[in-house]
Amino acid sequence: MAVVLVVFSALLSNFKLVFETATAFDAERLGKDRITLHASRLERVKKALPRHGTVGYISDLKADDIRFDPGFGEYYLTQYALAPLVVAYSSDQPLVVGNFRGAASVASATLRNMVVTKDFGNGILLFHREGK
Amino acid sequence: MTLLFSLLLAAGIGLVVFCLLRGDLHTIRFYPWLCFWLSLGLGLGITSGGLFVWSILFHPSAGYILAELGLLAALAVALLYRVTTKTLAAPSQTQPGHASGWGSSALLHAFFYGLLISSLVSFTFLSAAKPHGGWDAWAIWNLRARFLFLGGERWLDGFSGALGWSHPDYPLLLPGLVARAWIYAGQNTVIAPTLIGMLFTFATLGLLVSSLGVLRGKSQGLIAGIVLMGTPFFLEHGASQQADIPLGFYILATLVLVCLAEHLPAGKNSWMALAGVTAGFTAWTKNEGLLFLTSVIAARLAVTVGRKEHRGGPSQWLFFTLGLLPIVAIFSYFKLRLAPFNDPLLTQGWQPAIGKLGDLSRYLQVWKALLWELGSFGNWIIPLPLVLACYALVMGKPSQIKGRQEVGAAVGALFLVLVGYFLVYVLTPDNLDWHLKTSLARLLLQLWPSFIFVFFLLVNPVEPAIADRAS
What we know:
The complex is a heterodimer. By secondary structure, chain A is α/β, with parallel strands linked by helices.
């Protein structure tokens, strides 16, 4: 009887998981997870950046579902996508990657002595600092 | 294919090292599955450490593949020499475990394999939904692996101060393994960390079932495996590619090996040497492993020192240390030269720490969270800890526990780790509520396979319990 109780309880939880994962699965979403999509956004700017070294990062974005710090969500994703380049959350670098949603934000960035080197679309811009 | 080859090669290296340390081939013949899972864990740890040493000497590169092949060849020659020139004591010839009634055993097998298929399906769906793994997987472990694989001569950039948020002080067993698999594959495919996560998840299951099969009988092992697979969080977290499941594997492997040293006395010292290696790998997997390492040493010392019936104690400790030393050397180099501890827990200073130690409300908060998580961390429908408590009441404990000292050491080690985790929360400089909510379930999960192992060592196996009632 005790064994039956253990086996039944385990089966119940295990089958709940397989049911939930199977019903939540959507084949059309394959390759469209948040991290893959963010990496795709950065694909073009990645080619324009050096392979090694440090670049800066500025953004007006706050990502959802971020455990540690909502303001830093897409920064972490950017670092993951651009590795082995080190991405410092700072504009104090000769090259700075911008991750924006609105034109107003781009304008405010340029006010801080940042010059747009290239607009890669999708809110991704590459800046360099004036005088550097 | 190259990915599979890389994992097979790791398993091969582990198997040869296992046989070399055992000094025979009999153990594999008698306990093939147990040896396989232990060897796999050994091989994964050794090759991860190997890549780190190679990277320090040169830098991460495809040349490492040749070095590994050379290592395997050299080890195989050494094994051949050892088994042909030296006859060591064979393991106990008695067949392990208890004879099972055919009916109950067949049913248990059916449930076990049914759950195994269901678990594999769940794991696949989970991995497909999050191919880069959970948050910590891509923000910490796989990020570090990318620096190792893509960084070339600049791989140490991954420890830059600008990346302090990604915990550069975390040990490199998992990133090393992922980077190694990418080196073999020639690209940073998401299949590599997924496969490695799957290996550790199901190797933990295999080790749990096969070790209890040897120590307490096949049925006991199967029931334990069913309990583990009946823990959704174990499978979910395994698919999330984080280091908690690998850490749980090495904790379990260490406790299994310590128990085997008592249960299979032939070549006792070799079991202890292997336990030293796997205990070292816990520290090379996560910083929490250091706590386990000290706990297992303290617990085993406590149950063995001064006991007359415990023969060969000093030599066992010597072999344990010999197994541990190479990993400690790698770990120490990593901590001293590359990535010193920078955890705010350790850098907060004495005054704040003493203040927290004197705050009783923090103890109460941690205690409440612990009690809550104990019943819920597995994402069960019916909390399995509660079910296991009922199971223990019904089945009872054996009149005489085999390998009492080693089981005592295992229980003591797990208890000390739990006490350590408790104190870490009391002392944490982070927001306590946030810290508990984001990590306690994972810490309990690290210990869960070992808890199941110890639990089924302590309760009566199914068959004798039935026999007792019948008589």
